[in-house]
Amino acid sequence: MSSQEIEVLVVGAGQAGVAMSAHLTERGIRHVVLERGRIAERWRSERWDSLVANGPAWHDRFPGLEFDDVDPDGFAPKERVADYFVEYAEMIESPIRAGIEVLSVKHNEGSPGFLVETTDGALVARHVVAATGPFQKPVIPAVIPADSGVLQLHSSTYRNPEQLPDGGVLVVGAGSSGVQIADEIRRSGREVYLSVGRHDRPPRRYRGRDFVWWLGVLGKWNMSTPPQGAEHVTIAVSGAGGGKTVDFRSLGRSGITLVGRTNDYRDGTVRFAPDLGQNIAAGDASLLALLDEADAYVERNGLDLPDEPEARAFGADPVCVTDPLLELDLKAAGVETVLWATGFRADYSWLPGGALDAEGRPAHQRGVSAEPGVYFVGLPWQSRRGSSFIWGVWHDASYVADQIQIQITYASYENAALAAEGAAR
Ligand SMILES: Cc1cc2nc3c(=O)[nH]c(=O)nc-3n(C[C@H](O)[C@H](O)[C@H](O)COP(=O)(O)OP(=O)(O)OC[C@H]3O[C@@H](n4cnc5c(N)ncnc54)[C@H](O)[C@@H]3O)c2cc1C
Fold it and tell me: Which InterPro entries does the entry link to (predicted)?
């Protein structure tokens, strides 16, 4: 690829890049999508083997293409999700070039657009859309030193229990990834400790409808900012085993030892905050609040959905909750692995500084950055709660494509009188 000029460069061909390409194609805007790996690479190589989509197939998809071989109320396996995006890209004949990494995007000094360095040479692009993912670089908090003698890995490099050395496992983080991974490792016959922080846990289904439906009709996917005080609260939900409500008490009864938030480590011992009961109670409260809103919605609209009072019954707390462990001597407990399901951060250092704030985070409004010509798509909360999810990114990409089209229209403006004068001269 040598110094060619393109109208729009989309960086990354995950769901965000594919959605962007679909909307640009629809508007007749010339573009290229560069992907350093394969289409939907993160679904293939940065997620565990048994992962299925967190949302049912009728919901977690783009308009215009269904999962033809997955029950609409079922949960597509992660390879099937990746195949779906390949299928979609083929359907729209998306100009994706795989195996090319974008290394840097700089001002094209004295000329419009940006000079883009890639692993396959340089090009010039008038507009650049960063679609490199909401979850890019694994975050492992600096708690346990690297030379502590236990294996430490992040949920993005976990594949299956067989990959781990013999012995027990401490899983830190009880969002969707942590709970599913802890459950899978426990089922493989290992000793498992699960460190549980603040979380929301919606019911998988209530009164015959999946929680994604309830969040939709209650307007919760459209919230524009996280509720105050809950900015960092993770959501524990799972499609595993046909989809069940995440229930910490039953995880405790299955033999997983639940512990509070992981605080620190000294001389081989990890210490936990005494907040396990509080975190579980807050998760219960979030579930009950959603049930209340769902019931009110049913009543207001006179819907004929079956009552489900048992959704409010939580059962007895297991001993690990009533008498929580506050420290764990890893060696004495036979724990050989600490698995961090503690989230991700982003790296946009390859973009011009004007597109970023002082902390290096995207400086943008609904994906339109402060640097004219640079856009984002697929950011968490880009415009609403649904933004980083499959169905949400579709709508944000449409908005960003509109903004690019507006700029192309401005750029093509010619003053008719001046043009006529020029022609007469
Ligand atoms: C464990 C897990 C489960 C999830 N399950 C669901 C779910 O069930 N339903 C749902 O709606 N959402 C789910 N999500 C959230 C979200 O849908 C995914 O994170 C999804 O992968 C985001 O898609 P994306 O296209 O925005 O980013 P990504 O999938 O991260 O794609 C970004 C792409 O950019 C490429 N790239 C990065 N840097 C460069 C570069 N410099 N040059 C070229 N290419 C580059 C990467 O290789 C990658 O292919 C899940 C997230 C996780 C972590």
Answer: Auxin_biosynth/cation_transpt, FAD/NAD-bd_sf
